[in-house]
Amino acid sequence: MGGDHGPDVTLVACRQFLDAHPEAQLLLVGQPERLQALVHPRAQHVPATEVVAMDDAVEVALRKKRDSSMRVAIAQVKDGRAQAAVSAGNTGALMAIARYLLKTLDGIDRPAIATQIPNARGGATTVLDLGANVDCTAEHLLQFAVMGSALVSVLNDDPQPSVGLLNIGEEAIKGSEEIKRAGELLRTAAASGDLNFVGNVEGNDIFKGTADIVVCDGFVGNVALKTIEGLASMIGGFLKEEFSRNLLTKAAAVVAYPVLSALKRRMDHRRYNGAALLGLRGLVFKSHGSADALAFEQALTRAYDAARNNLLERVRARVAHAAPLLATADASLTAPGAASAPL
Amino acid sequence: MGGDHGPDVTLVACRQFLDAHPEAQLLLVGQPERLQALVHPRAQHVPATEVVAMDDAVEVALRKKRDSSMRVAIAQVKDGRAQAAVSAGNTGALMAIARYLLKTLDGIDRPAIATQIPNARGGATTVLDLGANVDCTAEHLLQFAVMGSALVSVLNDDPQPSVGLLNIGEEAIKGSEEIKRAGELLRTAAASGDLNFVGNVEGNDIFKGTADIVVCDGFVGNVALKTIEGLASMIGGFLKEEFSRNLLTKAAAVVAYPVLSALKRRMDHRRYNGAALLGLRGLVFKSHGSADALAFEQALTRAYDAARNNLLERVRARVAHAAPLLATADASLTAPGAASAPL
Asked: Where is the protein situated, by its record's location annotation (chains A, B) (predicted)?
């Protein structure tokens, strides 16, 4: 039901997805009359009377709209009827409801949102957190690194993808106290084989593809993502404007069309639509609200692949493997008290 | 002496600048033999035996290299022989030396680095801080807003430019506690006429031009700036690659050349080269290290215009005008203690 376009887009995407994946099954959750547009032998309708609006406060979505399509969809995951939930709706509400219904994995304090950004190497850099957590401790950043590694190991079929810590310089002495401490924790994790940590990276490294995974707090990640969207949109607008300036430039656009479409394809963020909500006891994926059918289908495919490749178990196993480290990290928060106890 | 290219670029830029500004005078500070390339009636050579390297630690630049060109240049400002200093060198060293020699203005705890980023409106958005301060309190962000307003009032000849607070949502309830508190301080400043505060802005608003000035802490600002550089460079690389793929695309590049150069001109960050170090008792401008002669000349022009338009006095006056507010803000740091005193 969610996103800027609702079922007009999501149901079209669902049909394409079902056609492309003959073994897949969908539970379509929403207002029954809106779901009539897609009747399919592998698509079951699950009724929900309410819809979380894009501008609903988290509290409203969580406490008032108890029969929202978002909540009912996540309940399907909780009850084992679905292996993953996908939504194009209100991100804050989705995270809050998912966290409330599914709970976090042992060893994870805060779930994170991970998305992929196309890089110059022709692949994509996975960045987390994208806005779920505004104030992060070093321990949270370590948890993000562990969860991100699990996600990318599934996406790229690479058992030990590289992790960079987003900072304002490559040197270990750069950044805030919390970032420096995160660097220490990540180096410890790398030494014990839990992570492939490559050190500090900077904003431009997201596009260079210096590390498979870039870890940052949700405030910084969200600003970076929105900045990227803003610049890409401005450049797109400039190109359109310059090529439509007069007859000559319009002719140039026709000649340059194949090149411009190749460029557009390479920059197409729709190919990477479908951000993972990591750290929960169930799989939830968030599509961009403005997604078209192609982009939303991509988010569905991403969730399907994650479920088939046991992403949830992989995250759980990685977190469990790193548990001694995560526990140490947790203890360090109360270290002064703990240290004085034996006295 | 500084930057990636040293005097080979800076002296060429100096000559262009002198030609374009018949009343301007330059003090060229550096190793005498390197300065011989520019002999000009309005350019005086000021010897300095040492050079701060781009990778020198701040401590080395500040304590060991006491006769560096950077330090001698800033000393010219301190002693009133120059109205502004411009450097393409090591940013951290420049800030540290400038702060040490010039000191901060009354009411300013921390100087900030402000740069301009081209926006879709055809103008530029001024963003600060860009990396001088990694952990900022709400009071620091308020100080940045006041200093940024003074800078832009000079640059745009607009007495009350608009200020936005970089956040992860437009609603006042978004962001960390510190950001929310900064929003409150900025609203108070707006109510008392000290600022034209337009509320929270997001990363994409930098390019939309929603506010003339965008205020953020140095960590976030630096990540945003580097992210922008990274994306712009990747898109540039993609364009070059796609247009040189084969004979057909190369022909398309020839046809599209005027359009592509128009685009390049609009995106040309060299036009905005020259970041201001604000909050000091003297004018210091930082050129991008990779600046070419055109870009470095731009930084010189920026410093020259700032000096002619009394930027220093304008910043001082604005900070003084906002002093009661800045003082209130300072007091709020110790408010709990102060509040209990009367009891």
From this structure: Cytoplasm
